[in-house]
Amino acid sequence: MNEKLKEIIEILKQRINLKIAAGCAGLLFLIIGGIVWVSRPNPKITLAAKEVMSVAEEIRKFYRNRPGYWGLNTESVLKNNLLPASFIQNGKPVNALGKNILIGQGAEGNLVMPGARSFDIVFADLDKKECEQLAEFQFTENQSLGLLSITIINNGQQTEFSWGGENKLPITAENARRYCGKQTSLLWTFE
Questions:
Q1: What is the DSSP letter of 6?
Q2: 128-135 and 43-62 are packed helices; what angle lies between their axes, rounded to 10 degrees?
Q3: Lowest-confidence pick of 2-11, 29-38, 53-62, 71-80
Q4: What span, in angstroms and rounded, lies between the C-alpha atoms of 88 and 90?
Q5: Around Cβ 103, how many Cβ atoms within 10 Å?
Q6: Smallest Cα–Cα separation from 71: which of 121, 123, 115?
Q7: 59 with 69: CB under 8 angstroms?
Q8: What is the dihedral of CA 102, 146, 46, 54, to 10 degrees?
Q9: Which secondary structure element, helix H or strand E, spans residue 104, and what is its range?
Q10: Cβ(143)–Cβ(183) under 8 Å?
Q11: How confident is the model at residue 103, as a pLDDT?
């Protein structure tokens, strides 16, 4: 009888161990799934980043046979129909995040002056999360060819990241977290 009892206890232990192992595996699956779900890129961020490159490409095509980007600003982009209609809301260019797009020279999208060989695309009024995700977005090598720098503008402080500069491109997640704030602008400079 003692042997039979020991055998039953051993079978129960094995079943309990299997249930505990299955429960732990299920819990681990939920934790990993949650981490993947939370860390996945926001589709609007991906779309907004692609918009930066498509706008830059349209501008570069339009100015391809000109000596520079003289006269370029947001108004001229609208006048010359360099943006798809889906980007225009209430007569202003807006990105996938619903934020204004400024085009020209500097954070205000000023008129590009004669001889200027570069232009800027600015996404203003980004929250911290939007800024971080856009700043660290990894463009393809082909997309990055005309990109000279990315500047993060937070509370009047400008931090420029460039290829081989003091602050190097691509921007790391750590630097994005460090320099992005509650209301930040991102400025991409293209040649």
A1: H
A2: 60
A3: 29-38
A4: 7
A5: 24
A6: 115
A7: yes
A8: 60
A9: strand 101-104
A10: no
A11: 97
Residue with structure tokens 């996404």? Answer: 123
**What's the pLDDT tens digit per position in 31-53?**
665 554 445 568 999 999 999 99
Q: In one letter, which amino acid is 66?
A: R
Q: Determine the longest span between alpha carbons in the chain, in angstroms.
A: 101
Q: Tell me if 117 sits within 8 A of 101, measured CB to CB.
A: no
C-alpha to C-alpha distance for 62 and 9, rounded to whole angstroms: 81
Which of 103-117, 138-152, 172-186 is the least confident region? 138-152
Amino acid occupying residue 18: L
DSSP lists the bridge partners of residue 159 as: 152
pLDDT digits (tens, 9 = 90+) for 125-175: 999 999 999 999 988 887 788 999 999 999 989 999 999 889 999 999 999
Residue with tokens 């600015």: 122
Statement: the pTM of the whole predicted model exceeds 0.85: no
Contacting residues for 47 by C-beta, under 8 A, at least 6 apart: 96
